[in-house]
Amino acid sequence: TQYKAHSLIRHLQRGWNFLRPERNESFDILPASQRVSETQWYEGTADAVYQNIDIIEAYGPEYMVILAGDHIYKMDYELM
Questions:
Q1: pTM score of the predicted model
Q2: Which of 33, 43, 48, 74 is the most exposed place for a label (fewest CB within 10 A)?
């Protein structure tokens, strides 16, 4: 999804609009970028998290669910 993320981004924006900002519920879409190295993209989900940890920590989340784009499916994540 890092090379052609449009369909995933559209799906998330349209399908996950039930989150309630007044309850501090949200999600952010961080498109792939070449941050650490000018010649390499992310090397998996853990590397993507590592390269964006400054953005994640800036939000100060109490809880966080990180999913790989190819593993998202219908699940009630609130039970976790």
A1: 0.57
A2: 74
